[in-house]
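Hi L.,

As promised, Carbohydrate ABC transporter ATP-binding protein, CUT1 family:
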Amino acid sequence: MTNSIEIKNLDLSFGAVKVLQDLNLNIGEGEFLVLLGSSGCGKSTLLNCIAGLLEVTDGQIFIKGKNVTWAEPSERGIGMVFQSYALYPQMTVKGNLSFGLKNARVPKDEIEKRVARAAEILQIEALLDRKPGALSGGQRQRVAIGRALVRDVDVFLFDEPLSNLDAKLRVDLRVELKRLHNQLQNTMVYVTHDQVEAMTLADRIAVMKGGKIMQLGTPDEIYNQPRNLYVADFIGSPSMNFLHGHLESGAFRVDDMVMPMVGYEFAAPQTADRPAVIGIRPEHVVTGELVKNAPLKFDAFVDLVEPMGSDTLVYAKLGQHSFRIRMDGQARVKEGETLEIGIDPSRASLFDRDTEDRL
């Protein structure tokens, strides 16, 4: 795959504070890459470095093979959509879409063509004569996306564009962004702290922490094979269950429970017993009739039940350890009862307790 964006040994410091540290990242032509992480992890800072809104301390940035490390934002061939709509309230939608093109002295007929195309793609043709004050939040965000779209560039940068919208609008616009990428096939880099957005939109996800990329991979890889405890804990809602114990001769022991790691493929040969942490996703725990086919069976004490419609989330105790179980929405389970559960070790993740890396 040809690289659309290359980031080499990137550093950014604000005084003595290192925000990005020796960061390397290649983004393929036409790829939808999501930068995912909690607040302060450096994801928006990295996006602003790509856009040219921040000067890097060290390293290089290439877009379409051209070194743009010190180039002005307008010279980088990018379109950017921010968290805030940043629309001109006195202008109509058409005026907002065409304003940047007029400043760039694009011919009038070309402006008309680009505005019409963006309006058609985003389904805002009927809104062109309205002003932002007469639009809903979702419509305003479409206009903000359209303003980047009319630039006719190869790379689009999105900085948490859906975070100001309500839950339903976020879902609707997320679907539209996915369709937009499928239609245009442009390179898109998208910043979010919302793992659902990341999992549903991305071709690949870069999970960030402390100015570094903890793991870069497909949504499937990030979910099923987290590289370390941080990624395992960050991905998934509710988050993964963690039990602290010891790995002893191919079996995981926690208190008086022993879990033979049947079907588990270790990342490297295991030569010694060690402190370890096993991670089990709530949705990978089976109950009811499915338990009889599970390799491992345990009794869990039900502490709290949360009906969620399509799912039922059960907070339980497995021995002395808190343990979450995702069950079917029609499941009948009561607080205070004992629930037989089944676990498949091949679907679990095992981590070294000291290094926090996947075993």
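The chain has two domains: 3-227, 241-352.

Thanks again for sending the construct details.

K.
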